Amino acid sequence: MYALIGKLVTKAGQRDRLVAILSEAAREMEATSDCESYRVHVSLDEADTVFVYEVWRSEDAHAASLSLAEVKAYIDQAKPILERMERIAALELRS
Amino acid sequence: MYALIGKLVTKAGQRDRLVAILSEAAREMEATSDCESYRVHVSLDEADTVFVYEVWRSEDAHAASLSLAEVKAYIDQAKPILERMERIAALELRS
């Protein structure tokens, strides 16, 4: 399975707003058969920083999710409060 | 809950040996009530690179696990084949 780790840094004070948006997205993603796990975290070391850990049936399944209307809606909600986004790693889950 | 993302780079050609050691550790960790998740991945972008995603009941629960004999045994197995280890993030799981 295909896993992704992403780091999202928000504008000052917007971290929990982003957590709320991504947590809603998480529930919806995990309801689909293609998404095995979508977990949202806050960093204990860096301010205004959220980490997402996602596991998908395949890389293609993840790519397909990005074209879903509801996913685009979440991205549009998040964009205005984001400072920057960084992909930490693209991974293959082994166990 | 307390989550950790770690990056382990092995000596050339030793990645799958490390995956085997960590996968065995994963089974044992997840069998304890303190460890909610212990996932082992290989990087799709970097050679000889393994990522571990762990979720523990608390930071203390994770710290306590490091003093268990079986965990020390896994660490001793892994050390000779490791080039370096890096903590990517210490996190609080939100959803």
From TrEMBL, chains A, B:
Gene3D superfamilies tied to this protein: 3.30.70.100
A GO molecular-function annotation: monooxygenase activity
Protein name (Swiss-Prot/TrEMBL): Quinol monooxygenase
Entries under Pfam families matching the protein: ABM
UniProtKB keywords: Monooxygenase, Oxidoreductase
Record PROSITE patterns: ABM
Chain ranges of the ABM domain: 2-91
